[in-house]
Amino acid sequence: MTDLPAGLDDLAIETPSWAYANSGTRFKVFAQKGVPRDPFEKIADAAQVHAFTGAAPTVALHIPWDKVSDYSLLAAYAVDRGVRLGAINANVFQDDDYLLGSVTHPDPRIRRKATDHLLECVDIMDATGSRDLKLWFSDGINYPGQDDIRTRQDRLGDALTEVYARLGDDQRILLEYKLFEPAFYVTDVPDWGTSLLHCLALGPKATVCVDTGHHAPGTNIEFIVASLLRAGRLGAFDFNSRFYADDDLMVGAADPFQLFRIMYEVVRGGGLDPSAGVAFMLDQCHNVEPKIQGQIRSVMNVQEATAKALLVDAAALRAAQDGGDVLAANAVLMDAYDTDVRPLLATWREQRGLDADPIAAYKASGYFDEIVAGRVGGTQAGWGA
Amino acid sequence: MTDLPAGLDDLAIETPSWAYANSGTRFKVFAQKGVPRDPFEKIADAAQVHAFTGAAPTVALHIPWDKVSDYSLLAAYAVDRGVRLGAINANVFQDDDYLLGSVTHPDPRIRRKATDHLLECVDIMDATGSRDLKLWFSDGINYPGQDDIRTRQDRLGDALTEVYARLGDDQRILLEYKLFEPAFYVTDVPDWGTSLLHCLALGPKATVCVDTGHHAPGTNIEFIVASLLRAGRLGAFDFNSRFYADDDLMVGAADPFQLFRIMYEVVRGGGLDPSAGVAFMLDQCHNVEPKIQGQIRSVMNVQEATAKALLVDAAALRAAQDGGDVLAANAVLMDAYDTDVRPLLATWREQRGLDADPIAAYKASGYFDEIVAGRVGGTQAGWGA
Amino acid sequence: MTDLPAGLDDLAIETPSWAYANSGTRFKVFAQKGVPRDPFEKIADAAQVHAFTGAAPTVALHIPWDKVSDYSLLAAYAVDRGVRLGAINANVFQDDDYLLGSVTHPDPRIRRKATDHLLECVDIMDATGSRDLKLWFSDGINYPGQDDIRTRQDRLGDALTEVYARLGDDQRILLEYKLFEPAFYVTDVPDWGTSLLHCLALGPKATVCVDTGHHAPGTNIEFIVASLLRAGRLGAFDFNSRFYADDDLMVGAADPFQLFRIMYEVVRGGGLDPSAGVAFMLDQCHNVEPKIQGQIRSVMNVQEATAKALLVDAAALRAAQDGGDVLAANAVLMDAYDTDVRPLLATWREQRGLDADPIAAYKASGYFDEIVAGRVGGTQAGWGA
Amino acid sequence: MTDLPAGLDDLAIETPSWAYANSGTRFKVFAQKGVPRDPFEKIADAAQVHAFTGAAPTVALHIPWDKVSDYSLLAAYAVDRGVRLGAINANVFQDDDYLLGSVTHPDPRIRRKATDHLLECVDIMDATGSRDLKLWFSDGINYPGQDDIRTRQDRLGDALTEVYARLGDDQRILLEYKLFEPAFYVTDVPDWGTSLLHCLALGPKATVCVDTGHHAPGTNIEFIVASLLRAGRLGAFDFNSRFYADDDLMVGAADPFQLFRIMYEVVRGGGLDPSAGVAFMLDQCHNVEPKIQGQIRSVMNVQEATAKALLVDAAALRAAQDGGDVLAANAVLMDAYDTDVRPLLATWREQRGLDADPIAAYKASGYFDEIVAGRVGGTQAGWGA
């Protein structure tokens, strides 16, 4: 059997606290059983994902959803469960004041409020020891003329500049972009070009976050990944998959070949090396599937795609490419993709004291029954809380 | 000034009760002021739209959102306000049982429950005197393999057959299709072909409902309209507009030229004639704009597009088409589109005792201040209630 | 090692004569070496694909590109090389008369000419013994108003009716649809709904041809496949792959998981059974890659996807689906997809006296050098000839 | 009647020499009557567009399609006809050497050849006095793995750097981007982000060219326009319109409201001021419509959209935007769009000694009959020559 090349140990995948909470569409949020009721329970669930995969050592927080009075307690709780706190995700889209935007709102009072929230998130980063502030802005407009496109860019730049100045030496901004939703005509940060322009204006501690579900149909995401790595500005991934829009399905579920191509460009561009500073994060909604299982499967999907990317015969590929042999070059890539890496990963897990089959092991652990039985009363966590 | 051709009086636009309630995206429902708290208040708002436009004489209900103990009271209330009850919209997507589908669910108990709701809606139609049962199914699957595509079609056919058999002589099914959302891999009725196949299997009282926001990017909607009129199966429109997906913006706001082309095919295919049985309905979400104003503006947009369509010089168009004069034929259509029909519509309104400017007249009426002041306490209506 | 389930022997893939000729984009047709100069040489190339794969026993012809004075000679030549003549593809898009359409043209003279060509193709079918007449119409309009959408449908229906009446008992029409290109506003047969409507009007000998590159972005092709099989109207596939539009790349190259899902629905719906009458054809343009190799690889890709589809554990899948276990059901499908079937196919080939590696065997055969050396002088075949 | 605000006189629209030649799709190039046979005849046709619109004073050349032995003769001929030579468009996509790319080709010999062509184009600019070198690269790959994405960016950067160094003080590079076609997996300059990154690396004389048909579905083009103006890097437009892909229809034909929104952002961002250096160019293919008429109509469409943009009540718009009045702000924009500006433009033309109806005047001029009669013999110009 082919051996798994080195490199997979470098792959740490951060899971998001909100993936363990209830989520849904605008039509309905279906409540599931055993869902956490507070940030501590979310972290407990995230720790399960790491326990069975060995590859999800950190948990991203979302403020204010994960607001607690003492972050050192939360951090200690995480460590106790075998994980650590990760990126801080700001939320300036759920207050009634943000109907027409947050940092790009026409009203300076609301822009101030939103920027203050971002600054507060940096305070929280200081408390949690987080490196990354992930910024996703739902800001935008629904109707032509509703607000001035360019002025909103200026306002956005102002807010980012203020937040950037507040960052510590080891802290970063990850600026996410998204084509549409919830804004339906203009989104103020719709594409990687816009995000990159702002990052370039800010400085080296601002990098782009690529959410794999946030592009126009037909967009070549691996091209963007290669370009951002070339420009030294790929800060993070928000992984998920989609057939149509921002479906937030399990990464690799809709187009596993695309995920492989993305991970190939990461490997090719040196992005798997921890020194590159690329954060690999999941950002998904498990609307119909069990949440912990969904996260485990997603981590496995990223691992499998990465393992295949690591198997690409770089020398053979380059030789075929340089020789202009289109089909031979494509075949080198496909040979890696067509390989069944599941046995290799099973071995990799066993060598690290993990069960070869994380899903089966998790199911057998009884954890799910335990949380269904134990999490009685209280209010289940969701996007709103 | 050009005179407005006959035909506009045939255009009656039904507004949906839920457009007056709060709505939003999965990220946030922003509450607005003065929002109705029950079906009666929704109808009161809908009556305002008709009062100022003279073109919105009916209101669609959504069950269970608009469930009342006595529909004859609701109907009488409507008449009192100058409007009538319209189509009944079934809802089989918000009960916790429907996590994996309603009439296509793998579990026969849940299919039964969903079908019973549809039958109950026909009971309500009997009570309200409604002609149309509008069926939109959120049914579908998120992951390949989650359920069997074809079996779900069979289940759907079974449910529709049962409901069809229950219809009275003057009642119809309007079967809506939608590409995606809330299902993200397969939607069980994703396109007009699927809807039409089921309608053909059912019989003449089943027709297709075209929601203008429910198509894949690049779909030519007016072609579908022309084809359904040719097949005698265009039952209704759910009007709205979109830049990306099912954005549910005001109809005509995103692409007024498309709306004109659609209305041109309606006129061309005889669909404006009441005997054609085409129902013109709005189905929109006013997430950021005032709701009553949004409906008034939408009605006006449909009227303007229709007026332009009626202005097309049919003889000149046909002559240019038959002569193969591409640019002359296109110019005939564009001449109508480029015409500013607002003065014609102002005159049309004044001739019918309406204010020439419905938005200004509504604003001046004080109704909005009245409902903001009066609707204190209680729970605002939304999609969930 | 897993054994390959029965069924793969039922899979016969027809290659198109024009895939061996030069092709390109509107910007440039790059000539390749060794390209055939007449239909006989195309068939010689197609025979190579069958010789090395054992799965491509027939060759589709395109009229007039493959017009010969005596089709029995061409048929005998094919048999001599180990293959047979397949479907006849009509061409009503390259005569100067067809600037504004063929069977839907405003001028009855040109409609007559186009319909006569289709009838001539049935004559050729009689001579070649072909079962299938594949009809793809480039007909459409570029500008709103250029011609009447509905009238063109009527004209199309008239032409199809005339051709249908001319079919022999064992002959069929395969009616292809395509979203756009070369028409850019309306295509007269843009989607499966339109094709199916015409087929239903014609009768049982008219079925739909699904070209996998002819859909709007986001269209779920396997859903269409399942629906057409359910309706008994899936006549054929034109296989290729695409990232954007009708890219005509090698099937399985852009989204191998999609091809697997399609083949799964074929297997699930009984479409692999020869009695189902589904024709599996390639329709691709090898603009930058060697043509014969491209065809071999494409046949292999379809075989691999089919082998994976055959490996799906149907009982386990159904159990998980019926139990509403979303992730287990998805996992059953993915288990099959993630399997590396290449060793199974190697064995399958060896059992049938073929080389385990068709590409390597073809390369080693010296055929390519032979045609490069031998096909000197004359005019290379292309789309125009 | 509303008066047309100042600003329209600043709008000069460059027409492309190749729009007067034959063009088509990969399926067929339909020859038209009276088509030019050399660059001089193309300029004669372009001069007609200016004669009747007064707004198309320059003609873009395409090298080698418009190669002549003495460019001063061509320039003098243009002046004689009342127009001037405009941008030089390089062509590195039609030589057989460019099968796998030009400046990004794996083979350094071919990269050298391609770069030399670009340098030759600057020589021609020196001869013609052209300011702008428009670079569109068809470079890309069709299959994953075919070549290395990032290495191709490096090669592209090297070629651009060499060409940039060759530019005179008053010369510029306009770097065009395009999502896909003729490359189908990766295009080396697929979006504005990539183009801008290269421009930023080059220096102030490199700017982005926005072709309105080169985006992914759903892309908000006016946002890009606003962003590039804000960044000081909007160099030019290639105008055309599309329903699906790069359809190259007459600008404004597919979505006139979009064209209005684009021109509004141009006006809003100061791009209409000649000092902004934004070049307004047409780049279209008149496959089915008469070419000179098609250009005249296109110029008129841009003028009408610009006139509407100039009519926007900026103060009212800003007031509504600042007040957060979504519908009022949208209404201000729509008021301008809904205005029929054709009478205003008719007056504008008459004031400048032009006919109020350029199309009718052109038709009445007899020019078309003249070129049909006169251009006998020779080879019609097309994309290939």
Automatic annotation (TrEMBL), chains A, B, C, D:
Keyword annotations: Cytoplasm, Isomerase, Manganese, Metal-binding, Rhamnose metabolism
Manganese found in the keyword field: yes
GO function term, MF aspect, one: L-rhamnose isomerase activity
EC id: 5.3.1.14
Any one GO BP annotation for this protein: rhamnose catabolic process
InterPro entries (alphabetical): L-rhamnose_isomerase, Rhamnose_iso-rel, Rhamnose_isomerase, Xyl_isomerase-like_sf
Pfam family, one: RhaA
Top-level division of the source organism's lineage: Bacteria
Enzyme class at the top of the EC tree: isomerase
Name the record gives this protein: L-rhamnose isomerase
Keyword Transport among record annotations: no
